[in-house]
Amino acid sequence: MDVSGTLYTYLRNFLIFLGSVFVFSGCTLSASFTDLTGSAEAPSVPSGSNFLGQLSKTSAINWSYEFDATESVERAILSASGDRIVAAVVNSGPVVMRIRPDGSVNTAFGNNGLITLPTVPTYNGFNAIYVSEDSNQNILVGWSLEGDWNANGRDYAIVIARFSSSGSLDLTFGNSGLFVFEIPEPIYVRGILADASGYFIIGPGNFNGTGYLGYIFKIKEDGTFDTNYANNGRLIFNPPVVTGENFRDMHLSAASIAPDNSLYITGQIYGDISGYSGVIYKVLATGAIDGTWGNSGLVRYDSPAQAWDTFHDIKIHDNKIYIAGEGPNFPDLDGVILRYNLNGTLDNTFDGDGVQRLKDVAGFGGGADYVRILAIDSAGNIFIHGTSLEAADSNYTFIAKLLPNGNLDASYGIAGIAFIDFERDAWDYPRAAVFNSDESITVFNNFVIRDASTSQKGNLVSAKLLTSGTMDNTYGENGFKENSEKYLQMVNLEPTHSQFHDGAFYAVYSAQTGNDGPILVIHKTLPNGNSDTNFGDSGFFVVKRVLAAKMIISDGIYLLAEYFDSNSYELNLRIFKYSLDGSPDSNFGVGGIMELPWDEDFETSTRNGQMAMGPDLHLYVTAYIFDIANGEPHTALWKVHSQTGAPWEDPQTSKTIKILAPADNGRSNDPTIIVDDIHNKVYLMSGDAPGSETMIIRRYNLDLSPDTDFNSTGALAETEFSGQFTEFVEINKIHLFNGDLYVSVYEQNEDFGVSALVKLTNTGAVDTSFGEDGLVHPGGNLTDRIWHSADFYYDEVRKNIIAANYTETEDENFLMSFSKINITSAPVSTTFVTEVPNPVYFNNCSFSSVHGLHCIKNDWSPSKTETSLSIFK
């Protein structure tokens, strides 16, 4: 018989800081199970040898699934080919897409229409994706990265990648296709400009201790710094020194190249007196700031209110400088368009004073209007892409057309404004728009929908305006095109449970598939460490629209999970039963599914259910449920026939659900239920009274009546339990080993903390003959470690308890080791087995006396997905 368990303690967060349901069919998926260490040894019959704790095999689990991913657009440009190149976040990862003029995805580009941006070692989080195109139709993508946490905090970097027009990474550029520049403070990419001499990278800068600095990097076409530009390819902008003002922040927003190859850069500075001021710099082709232009190379703009003047966009056209941004007009924030002469003076032929304000464009008072420059046509007409935002968050995307004199073109749209209603819930800030070659306009945005976990998700949606400012009803549906295409993408597999059965290892994963909602994935591994390709689809079995689940495998596969009803938008707790080959068991419930009976005064929580199989052909199930009236958690119990799915009815109450007194789940311990099939008892551990942040252990007979032989009441409160020890002790988990109840605890004093194991007698008393005063410390005592946590597994062949230890020492080293507890010796002996080189934290483990310890590690961030299986023998 195989024994399984879950490697989880309430120290997990601290450890991490250190470091309709149908069986899936008819959709595309791909998976790889890559051996990282070599083949596992062939399984053997247990001998007198002990578990040695040696790493036998590590395999990477890469699983891809075709689904409608969540999308958020960052920027769009018009390619010289006529397609739109779109930078976006798809399923939490940065990508670039190629969209045809009709709004469809160009599937010949990259991987089925998109390219996923490459990862950089030691970096995970990302920000501010920018896309551009050079004269050779190479696609330039820039983004910023956040590094992994380390002893000194974290590092930051910007990355520029160059792709061919077909979506292939250009490996001749930079270092294997990437230009990476690292600094100790966050920086962002706000622009990439290309000319014959190379590429300019514009960003708002990094923190220098007192404020933020702006920067320009110049790199050559080969992806290396242009050392002839400025200071070895780097130009840093310090806030200007002005008498009576303390300017300390410099944020650059955009740049434009003039015909003489000089660079005009815009942004804003922040001062303690003036607030934000819009600024323009002129930089010569050499990388030197032109001190003869404006005021020592700088033009500064402050509106009469002098509070919030921000410049976000700049374009050079016909020897004029066009700026777009925002300016104060209390209580509103107006969209502002300015036109300067090339000498840095405002052009008074533009709306009389060089400044045009777009105020309350959609008629909202007390809101804000945000604007960007979309295009300037050959006649000098200016097209503005903007958002009119109400204080209550109602908003509209709009395109405004200004005549060359700065006035609105009354013949365009409605009095010069064309509104695009992406619906009330859309994220309508001016994100991305394209001025097409026929002077029609395509605007990209995000359409909000809600998935099965009720959180907001989004699809990329585009709209098309004709040259008159009216919707092009031939585009998509009434002028709108939603990108609901499905993409084959790698999925983050979050382990929730695992178990051995007949020598095979089954792991349950929870996964999010964007707009298609949550799914459950079961992966089966054979004793040789390889996927069972006869199970599901190449070893992977999928259940749709189900949140994280717990699993039991006996005569079939039982899953306890929360299911989202897409019709009623409600969550309910269900048990699914499948045969071992993955087909639904039609004899169980309705079509292999039974919904646990409920009390109308309560609602379920998320991902906290547990179940156990009893010797009487019944499943024993528990979960936290919440009183709708006051939100108090309670512990619920059910008993379900394992063959028919019929719920058991309590003969005393005639109810099919047993609700216990209000509980406390403040320690985040899931309720735990285990069945002692030797003595026909049911053990339940859950939260005690609300506000106590303590646990309680209960013992029931199989009819769910309290077993009063256990602590005289059938219940053992943590306060009673911990009072028997010298140091402070908290209950962590309960285990059944060889028919005896063991409690894993966390013992601590004011300086140190360790995990320990306690054995209880049949009456619920601490067995003081077990270990030292009733405690066994598999990882050392309180004086040896800053903290130590352990999870426990039973080797029933050799009558040993295997402890997997996680330890931090006083010199801040993190260690993983194995030790064994011989429970048949007198006194009980603890033996150190081995220390694991290069230790890692595993999310979930199960143990087999034959096949050893199988552990799953999930290391996920928005820019990488790494799930692996490690086998210790």
Separation, N- and C-terminal Cα atoms: 17 Å
What is the residue-mean pLDDT, rounded to a whole number? Answer: 84
- Counted by DSSP, the helix tally is 2
Please report the total strand number as a whole number: 59
In percent terms, what proportion of residues is strand? over 45%
CA-based gyration radius: 32 Å
Largest beta-sheet characterization: 7 strands, antiparallel
Morphology: elongated
- The secondary-structure class comes to mainly beta
Which stretches are low in confidence, meaning pLDDT under 50 for 5 or more residues running?
1-27, 38-48, 424-428, 450-456
Helical content stands at under 10%
Write the layout of secondary structure elements.
Layout: E1 3-4, H1 12-18, E2 29-35, E3 55-67, E4 71-78, E5 84-90, E6 93-99, E7 114-116, E8 123-133, E9 139-147, E10 156-163, E11 178-183, E12 191-195, E13 198-203, E14 214-219, E15 234-237, E16 247-257, E17 263-271, E18 275-283, E19 298-301, E20 310-317, E21 320-329, E22 332-341, E23 355-358, E24 368-376, E25 382-389, E26 395-402, E27 417-420, E28 432-435, E29 441-450, E30 456-465, E31 480-482, E32 487-490, E33 494-501, E34 504-512, E35 518-525, E36 540-544, E37 546-553, E38 557-565, E39 570-578, E40 593-595, E41 602-604, E42 610-613, E43 618-627, E44 633-641, E45 658-662, E46 672-676, E47 681-687, E48 695-701, E49 715-717, H2 718-722, E50 728-737, E51 740-748, E52 753-760, E53 787-795, E54 800-808, E55 814-822, E56 829-836, E57 844-848, E58 852-861, E59 864-872
Antiparallel strand pairs: 1-57, 2-3, 3-32, 3-59, 4-5, 5-6, 6-7, 8-9, 9-10, 10-11, 12-13, 13-14, 14-15, 16-17, 17-18, 18-19, 20-21, 21-22, 22-23, 24-25, 25-26, 26-27, 28-29, 29-30, 30-31, 33-34, 34-35, 35-36, 37-38, 38-39, 39-40, 41-43, 42-43, 43-44, 44-45, 46-47, 47-48, 48-49, 50-51, 51-52, ...
